[in-house]
Design brief:
Length: 93
């Protein structure tokens, strides 16, 4: 998880991370690593979900991030992971 923390954000970094971790775990992703960077002083916060192969986002820090973008992206990551296993073993789990 790459998070660009903007100065206009009213949430703490700890709250943002705990909410994202909660949604990720509910979507089957339990080993996320967070990378933080400072954005613009008066800007908003954005989040990108990154894997070894792809980057999804950036997404704004809003309700859609938690209710739609993270679950959809987690589903895609799990699907891609199963395809990688299938390519290496000729079976799809």
């Amino acid at each position: 998880m790459s998070i660009r923390f903007g100065g206009a954000t009213t949430y703490t970094p700890e709250f943002i991370q705990s909410e994202i971790e909660r949604v990720l775990e509910g979507s089957g992703i339990t080993n996320a690593v967070f990378f933080w960077e400072h954005g613009l002083e008066n800007g908003s916060t954005s989040v990108a979900l990154e894997t070894d192969e792809m980057t999804f986002g950036p997404f704004g820090l809003n309700g859609e991030l938690l209710s739609q973008h993270i679950p959809d992206t987690a589903s895609q990551i799990r699907f891609n992971s199963r395809l990688t296993v299938a390519e290496n073993t000729n079976t799809l789990n």
